[in-house]
Amino acid sequence: MTECAVILAGGQASRMGGGDKGRLMLRGRSLMDRVIERITPQVDAVVLNANGDLSRFDDLNLPVVADSIEDFPGPLAGVLAGMDWAAEQGYEWLVSVAADTPSFPRDLVQRLGEYDTPVVLAATPDPERGRLPQPTFGRWQVALRHDLRAALNGGVRKIRQWTQTQGETLVVFSEGDFFNINTPDDLAWAEKHLT
Length: 195
Known about the structure:
Blueprint: E1 3-8, E2 25-26, E3 29-30, H1 31-39, E4 45-49, E5 64-65, H2 75-89, E6 93-98, H3 108-112, E7 119-126, E8 130-141, H4 145-153, H5 159-163, E9 169-172, H6 184-193
Parallel strand pairs: 1-4, 1-6, 4-5, 7-9
Antiparallel strand pairs: 2-3, 6-8, 7-8
Helix pairs in contact: 2-4
């Protein structure tokens, strides 16, 4: 393997009342533990992107990197933090996953790696639009980090506002592969339905 992964946990979780969504418990295990368990076998190394007091994640035994762009600009800043870490470690590719999505595919990295475009994003089927991008799940060429930093500093916040300028590819997975937990109702649904 020549890829590392970043777990994006740098958001403010406002719809869950704040705090670290990845620490929410789902049938006796935290969302973060579930995400780590799914991504670790797929890559060479895993880094966590978070903000605030990074020592609160010491128990995970993972390197933790904060956004280098201020004021919580969103997941693209987490991708950039992961890219910078990946570059320091000598990786050419970074895969991003979200800390609030505990049941993403176990072949995510393999499927995304079948395409050689600079950015490859996951998507799910959508009856109206054909495919619905899941842009926090992607494979990113680390060399793009300078362009991404410039875009973020220039005010870009939406992932696809930037990725569409990079020649992205969308890879369609199955419906429901990327159920993310944003609200208490989502967590209650996941308790009943997710494996």
